Amino acid sequence: MRFEDHCGWIVAQTELLVDGLHGASLTAPVPSCPDWTLGALLRHIGGGHRWATEIVRTRATGFLPDGIVRDVAGDDTGPVPAAWLLDGARELAGALRQAGPDAPVWTPFDLGGMPFWARRFAHETLMHRADATLAAAVPFAVSADVATDALDEWMALDAHPIHFDLTPGKRAVLGPGRTLALSADDLPAAWFVDLTGDVNTWRRGGGPAAVTVRAPVQELLLLVYRRRDADGLAIDGDAGVLRHWLDHIAFG
């Protein structure tokens, strides 16, 4: 795993976030996060960094209260809190580096210790940066290596069987003939999703599928995170399989 990269990306994505929001109004609505203002979104991001920092620093052995993440109420009359956001990102990255990838720590569903927190918050920050750009009506761009790793992480998290226990209705995503291929047309990378068994599985690579989506890796990432729809993307095969899948994937 790219532990050091992920630590660095937490800070880098936060820097890109604040750099893109000069002059933005905290009262702007966030289209991809209904009922949130830009200010609420930024409080969620900064709160998340600080919550994760506490978990990492204390080598938590169980869940810590996350009110700082969920309570997004606040004053939206001021400027973007750039220094506060950057401080939180740097504190988290520093705590992770000080702990190192092998230090024991609690994670949801035993997902992999310190590397989980580094990777999760790298991409949590990335995707909320995408949300912020929608609110501020400014362009969003992500490098291919970051987008590729974010898609890999999303696939692994989405395939965790715990989702069927937490949301039994997600089993409706499974069914005969339901296979999907996502193919990046700007680099040699593809992802294959198989929904035909008792659980959903995925692998890197292409292959014959009921539906294939071809697009730049950034657009594929936004698609699976449901930050964009499939309009304008190259779709071959049964678009109904794609729509059904997109209707049953939601986290992050």
UniProtKB/TrEMBL annotation:
It comes from the Bacteria. Residues 12-132 form the Mycothiol-dependent maleylpyruvate isomerase metal-binding domain. InterPro entries: DinB/YfiT-like, Maleyloyr_isom, MDMPI_metal-binding. GO terms for molecular function: isomerase activity. Keywords: Isomerase. Pfam families: MDMPI_N (PF11716). NCBIfam families: maleylpyruvate isomerase family mycothiol-dependent enzyme. PANTHER family: CONSERVED PROTEIN. This is Maleylpyruvate isomerase family mycothiol-dependent enzyme.
